[in-house]
Amino acid sequence: MEQHKWRFLQRAPSVLLSDFVDAVRAVEQRARCCYSESTAILDDDGDGFAEMLLLDGCFILEFSAKLSRAN
């Protein structure tokens, strides 16, 4: 499933992945406060949590778009 989520980001080939991650990093600390469990396990490479937020956010947007087209 994670590999499938990465494909969402390929729709913007002129934007670097690092630009997306940097944008998410800007709100990372606020997002961490919304989790009841520890997010430290996602810090293995420094961007783990930001990448998770980015991928999950893209998935939610894609899923919502598909639902709205189906209706």
Automatic annotation (TrEMBL):
Q: Which domain of life is it from?
A: Eukaryota
Classification via Pfam families: DUF247 (PF03140)
Stated name of the protein? Uncharacterized protein
Q: Which organism is it from?
A: Oryza barthii
